[in-house]
Structure formats: C-alpha cells, structure tokens
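User: Please run a holo structure prediction.
Assistant: Happy to. Please share the sequence and the ligand.
User: Here you go; the ligand is 3-phosphoglyceric acid.
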Amino acid sequence: MTECAAMSALLEGVTVVPVVVVQDAGQAVPLAQALVRGGIRVVEVTLRSGAAMEAIERIAAEVPDMQVGAGTVTTVGQVQAVARVGASFVVTPGSPFSLLDAVADSGLPVLPGAGTVTEMMRLRDLGITLQKFFPAEASGGRAFLRAVSGPLPELRFCPTGGISADNASGYLGLGNVACVGGSWLTPKDALASGDWTRIERLAQEATGLAVGVA
Ligand code: 3PG
C-alpha cells in the first residue's frame, strides 16, 4: 500500500482531525482520552512544542483507541524521530521532495501539505491524491477548493488553518473535502487548565457536525 493509500485508509470515516499543541507531555494521555470520549479517533500532535515527541510516544503507547500522528513535520530528521516514537502518520505543512522521500523511506502514511495548484499537481503526479490544503482560510478557503475541483477532480483534501466550529461544516459540504483539521477543539486555556470536560464537549460537537451545503 502506498503512503497515500494508507493515509486514506486511516482517515476512512473521519471528518475532523484535532490539531494539538501539547505543552506538557503529562497531559497527553488525559487529553487523548477526552478526545476519544468525544468520538475522535485520529489526532495530530504538532511538533511546535518541546513536549510533542514525548506526547506522541505516550499517546501511541497508552491510548489504543487513538491514532496519533505527528504534525508540522518540516525536516528529514523529524520524520525519522517521529517514526521512532511510534507516530501512526505524518502531516507536513508543505511538500519539498526531500521530505516526501524521507516519509516514503519511513513507510509511514502521509498527509502532505499543498497551498497552490502547482503543488497539488506535483503531489498528484507522485500518486498522492489526498492532501492537506494549508493554510486553508488564508489561501482562498472554500472558494479555492471549489475552483480546483474542476481541473483536478481526482484530488481530495483535508483543509486546515483557520477552520473553526463555524466554518467546518461548510468545508465538509464540498465534494473534494474528505475531512477538516484544526486547533479549535483544544483551546489553549482549556489545555492549560486541564479542562478535559470542555475538550470532550468540543470534540462531541465537532464529530456531530452536520455536513453543510457547499
Ligand atoms: C495546522 O497546523 O494544521 C494549522 O496551523 C492549524 O490551524 P488552526 O490553528 O488555525 O486550526
């Protein structure tokens, strides 16, 4: 199975992927458990904090109902490191070939980022038809995705960057959107105070999002 096919299989039936910045690795397991209680089964832990690697390792080891991926992966060394700690998949904000090669070597499923038509076509030419559209709102949002569905009908996207409870269902209503990602389910203040009840509720609301009209 290719890295893209494996990613599609992993995201089968998933509509929302929380994008989390974990500042304290000790919170990783209760956070993941709260998300699982809220109906989430795939989470992206971004490498934007010193605690990220340990957080991924702990979730992978201790929360069997959660598939944990590493996000904001931008270097070859990071690909190798997240593979070592047990990440289930890799998310990249952009897609330099060196990074894609490293992911292919790791054997991990990948959701690679694209923000322009040319980047989307380059990934398509590599057989990668499921892509992260990033930064979604800043790059043209729903109008952009609707426009690329004409020339690139074979592509499916997971938009992230500026997605919220207010606009998520609008994205999910587009024919070329497989799922959405975002940090709105895990607000900084809720994480800081360990408010797992609030995070569980936000997760429940997100997984219950009705598919809107494009
Ligand atoms: C990402 O890394 O996918 C995005 O930065 C998440 O963006 P958000 O914080 O706007 O949801």
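Strands lie at 16-20, 42-46, 67-71, 89-91, 110-111, 113-114, 130-133, 156-159, 180-182.
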